[in-house]
TrEMBL record:
Residues 273-330 form the Torsin-1A C-terminal domain. The keyword Transmembrane does not apply. Pfam families: TOR1A_C, Torsin. Keywords: ATP-binding, Endoplasmic reticulum, Glycoprotein, Nucleotide-binding, Signal. It is found in: Endoplasmic reticulum lumen. Belongs to the ClpA/ClpB family. Torsin subfamily. ATP binds at residues 103-110. The lineage of its organism: Eukaryota, Metazoa, Chordata, Craniata, Vertebrata. This is Torsin. One of its GO terms (biological process) is nuclear membrane organization.
Length: 331
């Protein structure tokens, strides 16, 4: 096992000494070899490797981040914490962890993936083991569908071969060509190994606006009935959500085997944000910029956003998506 870890870090060492002249390189190599022999693990602390020094789940950190940085998402907070903790503390999972996050723009889908990455990988989203696909960037042409499918399979296989604790994020699933994502279906299934590679410790996260309208309508129905937002439970949304994206012929999940074969562990609904949640986002942004918190400014920025329905102005159409630029205008 130790040799396996080392082989995944050796490439950078060779690359680092390659441009140096042969004489100097030989001398440095000899010195470096002796040093590493004396301190065999020292190299791993300076270059990211697929080792516990760089990949280690921080439950306390994730819980604190979700509680203090993700606003108005009691369902998502609960699911994400339990799902990630259960998976990362299981030394022998039967399949990869597969999460599908759904909701309107600005509700926190990308932010959640960032928090997960930061509490698993020392380098967070910059980690070499965190991989992001964006449908409109990586798969723009329908005519290249077959090529994309093959490339996607090879890319996932190559990265999991390099590190079994890889994380894959697929953004804009609502814009992905239907059927393309089925190319990775075998990697998400209950196979011990495929061509000698185990995918069971990898994480796959799908992000989509699809289903956002259904989620918003459910939240609005609760509000009209005088029920608390916190009374909305996963059971009120999960079936509706999965059916909504499965039957949407403009979604990357359209009639996908990932849903049909129950390979998505959790459909995570992100509720539309209310005015008070937007204010919390603005104040959090002020603190992140080390600004003096000005509640009047936060209130003004929040009021200038567009809300739905137009008459009641309950939910922010863009959530917290544009608050950074909006805040620049007011300060």
């Amino acid at each position: 096992m130790i040799q396996k870890w080392r082989s995944q870090c050796s490439g950078v060492l060779a690359e680092a000494i390659e441009p140096i002249s042969t004489t100097i390189a030989v001398g440095m190599a000899a010195t470096l070899t002796a040093f590493i022999a004396s301190y065999p693990n020292i190299f791993y602390y300076f270059h990211e490797c697929c080792r516990p020094e760089w990949i280690s789940f921080n439950y306390t950190g994730l819980k604190a981040d979700l509680d203090s940085k993700l606003f108005g998402q009691h369902i998502a907070t609960r699911i994400i914490l339990k799902a990630v903790n259960g998976f990362m503390t299981n030394n022998n999972p039967k399949k990869p962890l597969v999460l599908s996050l759904h909701g309107w723009t600005g509700t926190g889908k990308n932010y959640i993936t960032k928090l997960i990455a930061e509490n698993i990988y020392a380098e967070g989203m910059k980690s070499n083991f965190v991989h992001v696909f964006t449908a409109t960037l990586h798969f723009p042409h329908q005519s290249h569908y077959i090529q994309y499918k093959s490339q996607l399979q090879q890319w996932v296989k190559g990265n999991v071969t390099n590190c079994e604790r890889s994380m894959f994020i697929f953004d804009e699933m609502d814009k992905m060509h239907p059927g393309l994502i089925d190319g990775i279906k075998p990697f998400l299934d209950y196979y011990e190994k495929l061509d000698g590679v185990s995918y069971r410790k990898a994480i796959f996260i799908f992000l989509s606006n699809a289903g956002g309208d259904s989620i918003a309508q459910t939240a609005l129905d609760f509000w009209k009935a005088g029920q608390q937002r916190e009374d909305i439970e996963l059971k009120d949304l999960e079936t509706l959500l999965s059916l909504s994206v499965f039957n949407n012929n403009k979604s990357g999940f359209y009639r996908t085997s990932l849903i049909d074969k129950n390979l998505v562990d959790f459909f995570v609904p992100l509720l539309p944000l209310e005015y008070k949640h937007v204010v919390q986002c603005i104040i959090a942004e002020m603190k992140a910029r080390e600004m003096k918190v000005d509640e009047k400014v936060a209130d003004q920025v929040a009021k200038d956003l567009i809300y739905f329905p137009k008459s009641e102005r309950i939910f922010s159409i863009k959530g917290c998506k544009t608050i950074e630029s909006k805040l620049d205008y007011y300060v």
